[in-house]
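Chapter summary example.
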Amino acid sequence: MNPKFEDFRRKSTNPLKFRFFMLQKLPAAFVAGLRVREFDTEKLVVTVSHKWLNQNPFKSMYFAVQSMAAEMSTGMLAFAQVYKRNPAVSMLVVDMEGKFYKKVVDKIAFTCTDGKAVEEVVELALATGEGQTIKCYAVGKNLAGEIVSEFWFTWSFKSKQK
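The structure predicted for these 162 residues follows.
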């Protein structure tokens, strides 16, 4: 595991620090109202509530907001594994798929439980010096526990060692 994982997790779960980070680096996520609710080595949960600023003309949550929350649930698990690594590891989304099942008119939570698999892929990228990919799954559920959308993000990792 990345020795800096806990440092990154602590910063990400501090609401004030994380909102300031989003305002600086991810203003769309800040405006949309994304929040980290759970974060450990295996799982990350991101929530977002339907509101006027993130709705579409049909008065439901815009698909891009759902995509952003789902990507954050996979991406933060990935970023925590590359955070302050020595040698550094680059990461990039190389593919995304999404499916939408229900209209979103309340709060939804996106959960990704691929943390251990991401850790293994990053370690493999460091060990081999070759690029590695992993397809991470994020499921979005409404307050009733119904699946509203599913996403698959393919992340690529590559060691920056010389």
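To summarize the output: The domain at 5-159 is CATH 3.10.129.10 (Thiol Ester Dehydrase; Chain A).
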